[in-house]
Design goal:
By secondary structure, the protein is an alpha/beta fold. It has helices spanning about 20-25, 45-55, 65-80, 100-105, 105-110, 115-120, 185-200, and strands spanning about 5-10, 30-35, 60-65, 85-90, 130-140, 170-175, 215. Helices cover about 30% and strands about 15% of the residues. This is Alpha/beta hydrolase.
């Protein structure tokens, strides 16, 4: 079984934000490393060559938060030969971000997206690559995304659940966590471990406390 896991952070966060989740995955037997990049100043295009080199070194899984999920998927689209077995996206607007579209309409907020704007807005139409893709979405509406975009249905404060549902993915789960909060959620850590090991969230063992996940199958 593949034990190497490469973690990617989101647009405005440093790589250190992935440390808590990396520790939980390490406890489950995975060997974790974090790939850092400058989402705003340099954008996904600048990050992709280095990410491709990192992923190509040896077989691995990828766990990516928010924009990191789109960056990782873009790498796999452009380089389908990469030895990535599973990609787990946490709160990634794989179908495009309504909040990002709203931010682009205002000069003062558009600048905060930098060179990541195009990928965040457009997303992808479907997934048909070799790697198994899983997505965890949040439903705790704590964040500033609603100030810029109108969400349809439940959301995590920055990304709606529907924006995370991409046709062709292997599995999809919903948890009661905010966009950033899922990086520190024992429930998300348990689901992540299950998906990396088995390719499905249904193998997860519930963490202590009341179960909150809604494991609703592949994207649609």
């Amino acid at each position: 079984m593949i034990r190497r896991v490469v973690l990617l952070h989101g647009i405005w966060m440093p790589g250190v934000v992935m440390r808590w989740l990396a520790a939980r995955l390490s406890e489950a037997g995975f060997q974790c490393e974090t790939f850092g990049y400058y989402g705003v100043a340099q954008g996904p295009d600048q990050a992709l060559p280095s990410l491709v080199d990192t992923l190509a070194r040896e077989p691995c899984h990828v766990v990516a938060h928010s924009l990191g999920g789109l960056v990782a998927m873009q790498a796999l689209v452009q380089h389908p030969q990469l030895p990535v077995e599973r990609l787990l996206c946490l709160g990634s607007p794989l179908r495009g971000s309504g909040a990002a579209q709203g931010m682009r309409r205002h000069a003062w907020s558009a600048v905060t997206l930098g060179r990541a704007a195009t990928l965040l807005e457009g997303g992808f139409g479907q997934w048909s690559g070799r790697a198994q893709v899983g997505v965890i979405a949040g439903t705790s509406p704590v964040g500033l995304g609603h100030l810029f975009g109108t969400f349809q249905g439940e959301h995590d404060g920055s990304v709606s659940v529907e924006e995370t549902r991409l046709p062709g993915i292997a599995d999809h789960a919903v948890v009661h966590a905010s966009h950033s909060g899922m990086l520190f959620s024992p429930e998300v850590a348990a689901l992540a471990s299950a998906f990396l090991q088995h390719g499905t969230f249904h193998a997860a063992q519930a963490p202590p406390g009341p179960a909150q996940a809604g494991r609703d199958g592949p994207g649609r």
